[in-house]
Amino acid sequence: MPNGLTGYRRTARLFHWGVALLVLLMIPAGLVMTTKGLDRTVQDTLFLFHKNVGVLLFFLVLGRLIYRLRHAPPPLPASLPAWQRRAADLSHKGLYALLLLMPVFGYVRVRAGRFPIEALDAFGIGTLLPKSDMLANTAKALHYAGALALIALLGLHIAAALQHALIRRDGVWSRMWPPLGTGREG
Ligand code: HEM
After folding, report:
1. Closest atom of ligand 1 to CA, residue 115
2. pLDDT at 159
3. Cα dist from 96 to 58, 61, 167, whole Å
4. Range of the domain at 59
5. Tens digit of pLDDT for each residue in 5-19?
6. pLDDT of res. 185
7. Pocket residues for ligand 1 (CB within 6 Å)?
């Protein structure tokens, strides 16, 4: 067991729950802001939130990934079957990939369409892309497909976590909960 840890370290937990909170706000914001007939002020506010928090999320997930690569996760309980370890590993890699790709697709969709990203504009970080309807539309389609994949994978991730927390009670849930835990409890 690395350094006697039974759960994730506090930094890993804060990254996890911080990213989880933002993603769970980003998805409904994205779905609502693209619905037809929405009040213009509400739509503009949601777009402002979605674009700027989405950029922040990209750097947060990148930081989280770098932290994860430098700090080995705590071991899973020995009772967990091999196929579940493999499924967990694959789904976690899929989540990291989608959480890095979604902001990139969103960025390309917005910048190739010559729309503002207010926080980057305020820092004088101009657009890194040429104006291109084809690029913007491709990124829009990829962002949409990525959103569907992310929603499906998150559904699976949350269902598995709840199953460990409420039914199996095998210690998997307490590796990441509570958010301020140190990983040395138990
Ligand atoms: C993890 C980060 C992100 C998630 C989970 C996410 C999720 C979503 C979802 C669920 C939608 C609605 C489905 C759709 O129409 O595609 C959406 C739409 C959209 N997102 Fe994101 N998004 C993220 C990051 C970003 C970023 C960083 C930007 C821009 C800087 C962005 C720009 C947009 C735009 C412009 C739309 C509307 C697409 C259109 O109809 O033109 N998103 N997003």
Report:
1. 35
2. 98
3. 10, 7, 26
4. 2-77+113-175
5. 889 999 999 999 999
6. 74
7. 23, 26-27, 30-31, 34, 50-51, 54-55, 57, 99, 102-103, 106-107, 109-110, 117, 140, 143-144, 147, 150
